[in-house]
Write a structure and sequence with these properties.
homodimer; alpha/beta; Molybdenum Cofactor Biosythetic Enzyme, Chain A; Alpha-Beta Plaits; Maf protein; 6-stranded mixed β-sheet; 5-stranded mixed β-sheet
């Protein structure tokens, strides 16, 4: 039995667009992997009336069906933290201070020095919870979380809004409680990526024809990204998932992958290979992505940003005549770029990107979105892959750099 | 008169936590700059019943007060796009296809090849809008947006969920309509950026002491970014805003700026200057940011990514001994990097970045976050600025590349 799940986040910085709420999505993702679907996210400013009204409607809904409300934020020490006060108004309960949390808070504040010790009394409210509720320890920060009853099989969970405190409390304290409150069967999951295919085409070609066979006992979801779509399948039936993935691999052998960012990072690290890049239209975006994971210095050497034609010649040795004859965005220039690059850096892998990111610079023959990606493999072999990517300047640059990872993935898989 | 504003985003990928809703925060931020506050964000899965229920309560609320609902998502071509259908159910209206959008869609799909042409009839629904509503053209993608009435002075705006399409539609089509629908006294606004100062310190040092004098007739807001905070002041009283900004400039002469990204782009273009970069820990992020605006090819030449020490020597000519004596993250290496860079590229401006992005590699003397930024100015003068940036790997890299723009800004201002 699954409850009707609502995730509620509070904070005026969220509804003013000054901060991005990453908590709700993170919680939803964790719940999804546990096999639960969220019915609604709500974000409210730090306004006790608006918050109370929302909690009241959750409580009303709980008269009809099991409701699970998961709320983050508003448990801090400042005057605009209203969660506890609002919950007490909702339930008519009183609150009490958790002795353990109070001791911990005192210790932390005393260690910080006198100015903090002086304001201690003002911050004790973080250690209060409603009487008779299940508490959730905070092993990262101060504020104590709690689970309050909303009616039969219905609960309101309150957790701090600081992501590091909330995620730890969720995984270590809340999940075990949820499993007791709402027991259910284990759910399995598979994720695959498909490249250069639209969501709607995938649905037409794969989901529809297999709807009766697969998707009565399995759930599917698709997330569109720049260059690829992420396909997620869930079921309690493990062998059904295997069958789905096998069908997917058979139908799309050339465009399927796992998480290419993770795979490229792991394989390059493991195999002791090195890589360098020569970027024109992406201006450094591929290098930036390659150096996102900590530890990328094990394989990423560096490279050249050759945005102007002069730089292609002076930094990479691309012959001026090649650029003049074929244009800066051409198979020939992409080849010369990656060749010159690897001669200079000595890396086992090399990638060159040259393209028209737009909005200006397109022609009939080479429209905006035309991108050539050169790949130099450890064998010394060079191949160039030409694309026409959709969307605006940002989209084309994202597509190009992500697709470079896919080319690396395919080469590393060989 | 301000309406009661609710931002509604739909998408099962959002409530499953597979994608992060950046639209709602972005819209709230834009509305804030127009002087409007948002009362609630709601996020729903692609479930027509849940969506209809939510729209119905908005319509009910509109009987009591002016309501503005701004909805994103669900206007796409697939079966889980329910926005139009739900709005029609809510209003009892019929829909019709916008001819211009249909022609545009046909052209795009035909260009993509036969398999896309074949599914054309299935995707025409994106060009439909409810009869008698105000339409919002989509100049980036396909789906047409619209404004539907919800009652007296109350409206529901529906826009596509793809951020690039939505933001363009919002700025170019929706804002002028909103200004007509909810006319209000002209609100003036000033935005200034302050570098390397925390939100709470700014509030203590500037807002609190000036609360009585300034902030009875002016609103203020702060957005924290990587390296800087954006301070926004709003008032109908233009001369009060001038006074506030003057006080700010007097109090923070060394850390204040305008929008450095825009300023650097405009000045470099206008003055016919050129720039190149030498990046270590940022791995290409600065080059990527410099090439975000279309037209950056007028001044951005390129540069070198020298992630490994060998590359610093081979690509930029940094003496091996300098790296050995002072370490790769040092004033000396940053100097040698930017010097070698400009000798090779011949650009008027040069920037070098070398630092410890972490989480590993920090020492007692040079902790994680230590970054040296070298600046070579048109005069040939080289200066190096050393920082310790806060946060994780991503934060440190963002801080470093943004601060490089601030240094350029200061130099261009001279």
């Amino acid at each position: 039995m699954s409850p009707y799940i609502v995730i509620l986040s509070t904070g005026s910085e969220l509804t003013a667009g000054r901060s991005l709420d990453t908590n709700s999505g993170w919680i939803a993702n964790q719940l999804f992997e546990l096999g639960w679907k969220v019915k609604k996210f709500i974000t409210l400013p730090d306004d006790p009336n608006l918050i109370l009204k929302e909690l009241q409607s959750l409580k009303d809904l709980a008269k009809e069906l099991p409701v699970l409300g998961i709320m983050t934020g508003g448990l801090g020490p400042t005057e605009d933290d209203y969660t506890l006060e609002t919950v007490l108004k909702l339930t008519g309960k009183t609150s009490y201070s958790i002795e353990k949390a109070k001791l911990r808070l005192t210790k932390i504040y005393e260690a910080r020095g006198k100015e903090y010790k002086d304001i201690l009394p003002n911050v004790f409210r973080q250690t209060f919870v409603p009487e008779g509720c299940k508490t959730l320890d905070n092993s990262v920060g101060i504020a104590v979380g709690f689970i309050e009853s909303l009616g039969e099989n219905s609960y309101l969970v309150c957790m701090p809004g600081v992501p590091s405190e909330m995620t730890e409390m969720f995984k270590r304290r809340l999940v075990p409680e949820l499993k007791k409150l709402y027991p259910r069967e284990n759910l399995n999951q598979r994720t695959k990526w498909l490249w250069n295919i639209g969501e709607s085409l995938f649905q037409n070609d794969f989901i529809e024809p297999n709807r009766d066979e697969f998707f009565k006992d399995a759930e599917w979801g698709v997330t569109a990204n720049r260059g690829y779509i992420k396909c997620i399948f869930q079921s309690t039936n493990e062998s059904l998932l295997e069958t789905i993935v096998h069908r997917l691999e058979t139908q799309y052998p050339k465009i399927i992958s796992e998480d290419v960012f993770q795979y490229v990072h792991e394989q390059l690290s493991k195999m002791g290979l090195t890589i360098s890049v020569a970027e024109s239209c992406t201006g450094g975006l591929l290098g930036k992505k390659l150096t996102e994971p900590s530890g990328s210095s094990a394989y990423f050497l560096g490279g050249c940003l050759t945005y102007s034609n002069e730089m292609k010649t002076s930094l990479l040795g691309v012959p001026k005549e090649t650029i003049e004859s074929f244009g800066a965005v051409s198979v020939e220039v992409a080849t010369a770029m990656v060749k010159g690059l690897c001669e200079r850096t000595g890396s086992t892998y090399g990638i060159s990107i040259t393209g028209i990111a737009g909005p200006l610079g397109g022609t009939e023959v080479k429209p905006v979105g035309t991108v050539c990606i050169g790949l130099r493999e450890p064998s010394g072999e060079i191949s160039v892959h030409q694309y026409i990517f959709p969307g605006n300047r940002e989209s084309i640059r994202e597509n190009a750099s992500n697709t470079a990872f896919f080319l690396l993935y395919q080469s590393l898989k060989k």
